[in-house]
Amino acid sequence: QVQLVESGGGLVQAGGSLRLSCAASGSFFSILHMAWHRQAPGKQRELVAAISNSGGTNYADSVKGRFTISRDNAKNTVYLQMNSLKPEDTAVYYCTAKHPRRLEYDYWGQGTQVTVSS
């Protein structure tokens, strides 16, 4: 079982930056694929950024060039650096994880609210 705990959300003005962190329990963090999802009010949950166990990354088109996902396996932590934030980035952000052979992200954190004011 993997437990994920997010931190770093908050209120920021448009154009500002936030850094989300996600601490994972367990001794096998390094083999997990990690990601950040988000859900805005009235919208479907979407994948924002993902990082594989080998460090490969991919991003939603809406955040390319603004967000950066990274991981520190020594600290069992994944990060999401968010720059040039826009009001449409307002959402609950979830840290997620899956084993490499799984198609779906099985493990979800409790979520952290990010609010971007215009």
Give me some keywords for this one.
single chain; 4-stranded antiparallel β-sheet; 0% helix; 50% strand; globular
- The overall average pLDDT, rounded, is 96
N-to-C order of helices and strands:
EEEEEEEEEEE
- Structure class: mainly beta
Identify the overall geometry.
globular
Percent helix, as a range, is: under 10%
How would you classify the quaternary structure? single chain
Write down how many β-strands occur, each being a DSSP E stretch of 2 or more residues: 11
End-to-end distance = 40 Å
What proportion strand? Answer: over 45%
pLDDT under 50 segments (min length 5)? none
Q: What's the gyration radius in Å?
A: 13 Å
Short précis:
With 118 residues, this protein is an all-beta fold. The chain has strands at residues 4-7, 10-13, 18-24, 33-39, 46-51, 57-59, 67-72, 77-82, 91-98, 107-108, 112-117.
Description:
With 118 residues, the chain is mainly β. Helix content is 0%, strand content 50%. It is built from no helices and 11 strands. A hairpin with a 5-residue loop joins strand 5 (46-51) and strand 6. It is globular and about 40 Å long.
Furnish the topology, listing elements before pairings.
Layout: E1 4-7, E2 10-13, E3 18-24, E4 33-39, E5 46-51, E6 57-59, E7 67-72, E8 77-82, E9 91-98, E10 107-108, E11 112-117
Parallel strand pairs: 2-11
Antiparallel strand pairs: 1-3, 3-8, 4-5, 4-9, 5-6, 7-8, 9-10, 9-11
